[in-house]
Design a protein that fits this description.
The structure is a homodimer. Helix content of chain A is about 30%, strand content about 25%. The first copy, chain A, has about 375 residues and is an alpha+beta fold. Chain A folds into two domains: about 240 residues, Aminopeptidase (3-Layer(aba) Sandwich); about 110 residues, Alpha-Beta Plaits (2-Layer Sandwich). In chain A, strands 1-2-6-3-7-18-8-17 form an eight-stranded mixed sheet, with helices on both faces. Chain A is elongated and about 75 Å long. At the A-B interface, strand 10, helix 5, strand 13, strand 14 and strand 15 of A face strand 10, helix 5, strand 13, strand 14 and strand 15 of B.
């Protein structure tokens, strides 16, 4: 029986709030206690209208401002790897919070919650979205579900996704395509291997092409997207005394947002010409869209506080979902994305503060 | 609940008897009904002493002859592949019996049973062994169990294993070694693949070595044993968005009986120098041993009937078990070993008769 979550204190400092969120584990499909806690703490706030679908919570101002910004984050994490409860290492702005979810992405959720409570009269109307099932199969994604079931909840002119970017602005995202490359063989008893054709040996050529592949770096709207083509799985073999008649290499292609899905697929089919290629998963990327006026204004305001320059987002994120809804969207959140899903996941406290302050200033 | 098997008729012709044995399916671990039927039909015969351990049946003459021959066969098969009940195609000696077990090795078991019933006064004492669990892990092997539990049941001067040899004499057998070759990598998110090292790509070098490998053909005691080094399995990949940090290639080395297990292992380690190699299964081969006087006499008597010459056995068989007990042993049985375990497994009727007649003549 799930233990009811302790109430969240949105007036606490960001480190305390982030730790409270992380110490309430919420791996995908187990978001309910955290969703309940978020709903419970936001519902009493008079400046917010709170809506719920499953374990997705949407809270929005209705001030009649000429523009509306959607600020979204997912509340689920990948499974805990014995890295909870959180630990605080160091002090002040030098402090780091260690533990599952600190980077991906409860640090971002803490920033959202603190601002949702504090910004009672933002300059732009704001829709705060906290959603479930981001870390699992795309069809389960809570943001996708809300977009299908309640598209009006997500209406807006611009979206900020608080995915980890080390408190920098990362525009757009690469697309992702997954294929299976199948290498056939002829089965035989391994005692008389010369009567068969070994499919696993045949897969050597597929791995050779992957090894020799030189991924492109593609400039899109001023940002350079680095691509990647990688085997993420391989399987072959029926029994330990049988020459295998099939070997399947699962390949993941991360491609720049200037390529369409069809172009990405065509490219992969060219690389593996001569082999059967079956597409098993595909999601288009999103162009950075930083030429949109609201996006440009956001970038200018944030960089005035943080310095730096916008960068490309390599991983696929839900900004692509906003892009497909016709909304420009950027990633902006605390934590180094390279540490996401790692056992040593950890988030610097200063990035929590920097994101909070920059986003808060722009929205005020 | 297992259906009691119909009684076997050992006076029936060999085709009928083989079909009756095959039509009583006995995949490994499901040998009991067939073992019961064999025990039931042999026990009443006054010239045989019948012993049982689990689903292994041993029936022997005790005539005080100066020499004893062990004639052995396993009664289990690999799983049925929708190829039962048996079908008879063609007529007379041209007939072929199609179906699971016809080759591996109920044709041989039919020859054993027919001779066990008919040879009431053989020139050499005979121990007929019918055993279970040959087609699965070595530690389950019924012949091995009997050798451990009742070594005196297997005592003899020479052993004939009725494994399929197309009614020719196949001496000794290749050894078999199974290893896992492990290729390490460094995990990373596949969206930032350049921060990791792809273990599956790294396994390309292992497959390259396998592809380039030229297996030896080794002469041992006058027979030429063909070796083989093959991947029989490959696995790698944790999740479809993770650069894999390990890829494991399972390799099977079939080696000539002149090599010891230690030499075989050393050879494989040389081939995969630079990689971690873990031995997961090993069984020494058996030299043909045809210079033993009883073996030589058997070979001469059989070839006088069938023509041809002794050949090497490529697959590992339980002759190696007899060899390790210090008994020379040969394979001699109906059916083409290449068809063993195949969906189109089928045995020519003439081979049943040829094995029956040659073995019967030598034992009489």
């Amino acid at each position: 029986m799930p233990v009811p979550a302790p109430p969240l204190d949105l007036s606490a400092d960001l480190v305390t709030l982030t730790r409270a969120l992380c110490d309430m584990p919420s791996p995908s499909s187990h978001e309910k206690p955290l969703a309940d806690a978020i709903e419970a703490v936001l519902t009493p706030l008079p400046h917010l209208e709170v809506l719920r679908d499953g374990d997705a919570i949407v809270a929005r101002t209705r001030l009649g401002r000429p523009a509306r910004v959607v600020v979204a984050g997912h509340i689920d994490t990948v499974p805990v790897a014995d890295n909870l409860p959180t630990r605080l290492v160091g002090e002040g702005l030098h402090a780091e919070i260690w533990g599952r979810g600190t980077v991906d992405m409860k640090g971002g959720v803490a920033v959202q919650l603190a601002l949702a409570a504090r910004l009672t009269e933002p300059a732009r109307d704001v829709t705060w979205v906290f959603y479930d099932h981001e870390e699992v199969a795309a069809e389960l994604n809570g943001l996708g579900r809300v977009a299908r079931e309640h598209p009006e909840w997500l209406e807006g002119d611009f979206a900020v996704l608080c995915e980890p970017t080390s408190a920098g602005i990362e525009g757009g995202c690469n697309g992702t395509l997954r294929v299976e490359v199948r290498v056939p063989g002829v089965a035989a008893h391994s005692a008389r291997s010369w009567t068969g054709t070994n499919a696993i040996h045949g897969a050597g050529e597929v791995l050779r092409r992957l090894e020799a592949y030189e991924p492109a770096a593609v400039e899109v709207d001023g940002l350079v997207y680095r691509e990647g083509l990688n085997a993420v799985g391989i399987r072959g073999g029926i029994a330990t005394n049988v020459i295998p008649d099939e070997c399947v290499v699962t390949v993941n292609y991360r491609f720049a947002p200037s390529r369409s899905l069809a172009e990405a697929e065509e490219h992969v089919r060219e690389v593996f010409a001569g082999y059967e290629v079956v597409v098993t998963d595909a999601a288009a990327g999103a162009r950075p869209g930083l030429d949109d006026p609201t996006a440009a204004d956001f970038v200018e305001a944030v960089l005035a506080q943080t310095g730096g320059a916008p960068a490309p987002k390599y991983g696929w994120t839900d900004v692509a979902r906003f892009a497909s809804l016709g909304m420009p969207a950027v990633n902006f959140g605390p934590g180094d994305p390279v540490l996401a899903h790692k056992d040593d996941e950890r988030c610097p406290a200063w990035q929590l503060q920097a994101c909070h302050d920059a986003l808060g200033a722009w929205l005020s």
